[in-house]
Amino acid sequence: MTPAEKELWSALRRIAPEQAHFRKQAPLGPFIVDFASHAAKLVVELEGGAHNAPDVARSDARRRSWIEGRGYRVLRFRNEEVIKHAVTVARYIAAEATARMT
Fold it and tell me: Is 69 left (phi over 0), alpha (psi -120 to 50) or beta?
């Protein structure tokens, strides 16, 4: 796991509702997503600088389309944002998970 993923995983474990049951490096069809809550149908992806490259952006768009086509919501956060504001990002994710499970 990257430093940003470790930071977010630590915060999610403290903040996310237990029934959301987030998994790290979770398989979802042909993909491995950074974090997923199957109960909330929520996927969280963290992005580094490579995601700015046109070919990576196209691949991300196809990936997102496939995942959302199965009823999941995809949330994307920049690594820098997570490193600086991990608790705030985790709270946002927890709120989204809660809303999707009700």
Answer: alpha
